[in-house]
Structure formats: C-alpha cells, structure tokens
Amino acid sequence: xxxxxxxxxxxxxxxxxxxxxxxxxxxxxxxxxxxxxxxxxxxxxxxxxxxxxxxxxxxxxxxxxxxxxxxxxxxxxxxxxx
Length: 82
Description:
With 82 residues, the protein is an alpha+beta fold. The protein has one domain (7-79). The protein has one helix and five strands. The protein has one helix spanning 31-51, and strands at residues 7-15, 18-20, 26-28, 60-65, 70-75. Strands 1, 2, 3, 4 and 5 form a five-stranded antiparallel sheet that branches. A hairpin with a 4-residue loop joins strand 4 (60-65) and strand 5. The chain is globular. The mean pLDDT is 92.
C-alpha cells in the first residue's frame, strides 16, 4: 500500500485588529483534510474563548497551503450550533 503524500497547511488567525500568522503549520493529506482540521481547531478556540470570556465575533481561521493558496476560511461563529 503506497504512503499518502502529506502537504503542509498554515492556520492563520484573523481578528478585527490584524492577522496572527502560523509559522509552523501542520501536515494533512489534502485540502479537505486540512479544512476538517481547521474546523476542529476553530471549535477548540471557541471553547477557550468562552472559558476565558473572550469575544469570538470577527475571528476566523484562514487555511493556507504551503504554496500560498487560500484553501478555506472558517469563521469561529460558524462552528457553533445553536
């Protein structure tokens, strides 16, 4: 069985006052897997924000490939089910 080639993706955090760049990144098999990883990360960020009484409105994860292509934008509020 051949090994799946992994690709590096970066989860940058966009807030009202700027962009926090992810300089390490994480490896995923493809864009779809990176998007699901970003959704999971966004959920963790929401839990942390609620615990610390921080705002989530306007915050989002911007998923970029190593080649600089924007793969997905995940607003934190989009992962909350009400």
